[in-house]
């Protein structure tokens, strides 16, 4: 079977997951379920315009100007601030006012200083003709030291500001502290710094894949895993060493694994877009976990009950029913939020452990030959990584023990992602062993 068939199955599963997880999608847009793509696009633009009346670019420019003006205002002395207040151009300040830039994140002060310095340089260049005529003006006394400091700093710094733009790939956002984020973005209160603010732009969200922030490890861990699984799927389905009996039953496993990893990458990329986009793709991410458990179990049960098709059909239908039920249970209501991560993990663990029932049934009815024990041992190792990763994710270790020390790398969610990929590899080996045994042993 060609890889295009696998892609077709994968797209079909994505469509089913979208219908399950985004049941209220049509309701939010206000269009019927029979609407075509153009009607959906038109409704989406209308909804976006209602939610954000101003243009996104204008809103970002206004926000950047506000930050520049605020930063420039804070570097002025109290005497200059009072002079601005007397003219009606600034707020009233007390003599004991401290700069607002004293944030918990040490990088925030540097960012505001850089913005303030740029603004003062621009003002100084515009005010040069006026300065020559009014040499004793208070503006010159304030701007000139800042300009001199910037020029001397630029020489000593070697162009740090320009290199920063190159490193950030033209980023239009500044990393934020968890306390400044809206509630729907406060996923983990033990990860303090390096968060992306609400971007309201799909382009900026996907551009942030190549930038360093609190979700970088979560995105790349499953993005690399997705690419490896895609290569494994392509190699397995196109290999001449396997016949159709070793290809077709593997499809549910490959499709569910690619779907789970793909949903995870998209969710962690778009989680900072907006509230409703974050909630939608969070539900898709949870739905992908249920699809992975169901698809993997169906592939393994096919070879376990290879000689007993009626038992396979019974347990396959039961497994799919449990998968759909667990997906609905986790994406419904508040159970999909971050505060219910332990309950959600418990639901998925119990769903995965339900595969023990057909194994016990087979052992009681027919016994388990020694040739199958190696495949079962690999399944036990797979279950260990799945359960351990889910518990680490639920307990949020190690960032719970040292808040702020794992803001970028080695968070519990990243460890969970790595354990999921390791478990997928062990399951593939287990599936290969039981498939080779069944095809070499007559019923």
From TrEMBL:
User: One GO MF term, please?
Assistant: signaling receptor activity
Lipoprotein found in the keyword field: no
Q: Where is this protein localized, as stated in its record?
A: Membrane
The residue range of the signal peptide is 1-21
Give the source's domain of life in one word: Eukaryota
Principal location: membrane
Matching entries from SMART domains are given as:
DnaJ
Output the Gene3D superfamilies linked to this UniProt entry: DnaJ domain
Task: Give the Pfam families listed for this entry.
Answer: DnaJ, HlyIII
Q: Which organism is it from?
A: Trichinella pseudospiralis
Can you tell me which family this protein belongs to?
Belongs to the ADIPOR family.
Q: Membrane-spanning regions, if any? A: 219-238, 250-271, 300-324, 345-364, 376-394, 415-435
Q: What is this protein called?
A: ADIPOR-like receptor
One term under GO cellular component: plasma membrane
């Amino acid at each position: 079977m060609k890889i295009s068939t696998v892609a077709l199955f994968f797209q079909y599963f994505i469509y089913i997951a979208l219908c399950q997880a985004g049941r209220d999608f049509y309701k939010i847009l206000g269009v019927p379920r029979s609407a075509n793509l153009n009607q959906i696009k038109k409704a989406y633009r209308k909804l976006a315009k209602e939610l954000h009346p101003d243009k996104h670019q204008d809103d970002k420019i206004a926000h950047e100007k506000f930050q520049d003006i605020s930063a420039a205002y804070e570097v002025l002395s109290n005497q200059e601030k009072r002079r601005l207040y007397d003219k009606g151009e600034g707020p009233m300040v007390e003599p004991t006012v401290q700069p607002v830039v004293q944030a918990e994140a040490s990088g925030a002060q540097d960012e505001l200083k850089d913005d303030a310095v740029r603004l003062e340089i621009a003002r100084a260049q515009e005010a040069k003709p006026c300065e020559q005529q009014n040499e004793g003006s208070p503006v010159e006394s304030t701007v000139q030291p800042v300009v001199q400091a910037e020029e001397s700093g630029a020489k000593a710094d070697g162009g740090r500001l320009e290199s920063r733009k190159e490193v950030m790939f033209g980023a239009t956002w500044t990393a934020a502290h968890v306390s400044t984020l809206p509630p729907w973005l406060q996923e983990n209160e033990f990860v303090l710094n390096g968060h992306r603010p609400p971007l309201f732009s799909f382009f900026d969200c996907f551009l942030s894949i190549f930038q360093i922030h609190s979700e970088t490890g979560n995105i790349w861990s499953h993005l690399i895993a997705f690419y490896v699984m895609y290569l494994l799927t392509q190699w397995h389905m196109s290999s001449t060493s396997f016949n159709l009996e070793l290809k077709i039953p593997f499809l549910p496993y490959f499709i569910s694994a690619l779907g789970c990893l793909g949903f995870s990458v998209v969710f962690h990329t778009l989680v900072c877009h907006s509230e409703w986009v974050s909630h939608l793709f969070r539900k898709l991410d949870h739905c992908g976990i249920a699809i992975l458990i169901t698809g993997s179990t169906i592939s393994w049960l096919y070879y376990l009950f290879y000689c007993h098709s009626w038992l396979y059909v019974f347990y396959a239908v039961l497994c799919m029913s449990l998968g759909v039920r667990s997906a609905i249970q986790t994406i419904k209501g508040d159970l999909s939020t971050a505060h219910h991560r332990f309950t959600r993990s418990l639901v998925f663990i119990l769903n995965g452990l339900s595969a023990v029932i057909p194994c016990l049934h087979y052992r009681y009815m027919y016994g388990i030959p020694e040739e199958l024990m190696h495949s079962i041992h690999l399944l036990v190792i797979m279950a260990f990584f799945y359960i351990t990763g889910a518990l680490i994710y639920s307990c949020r270790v190690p960032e719970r023990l040292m808040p702020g020390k794992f803001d970028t790398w080695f968070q519990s969610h990243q460890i969970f992602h790595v354990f999921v990929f390791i478990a997928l590899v062990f399951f593939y080996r287990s599936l290969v062993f039981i498939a080779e045994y069944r095809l070499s042993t007559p019923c």
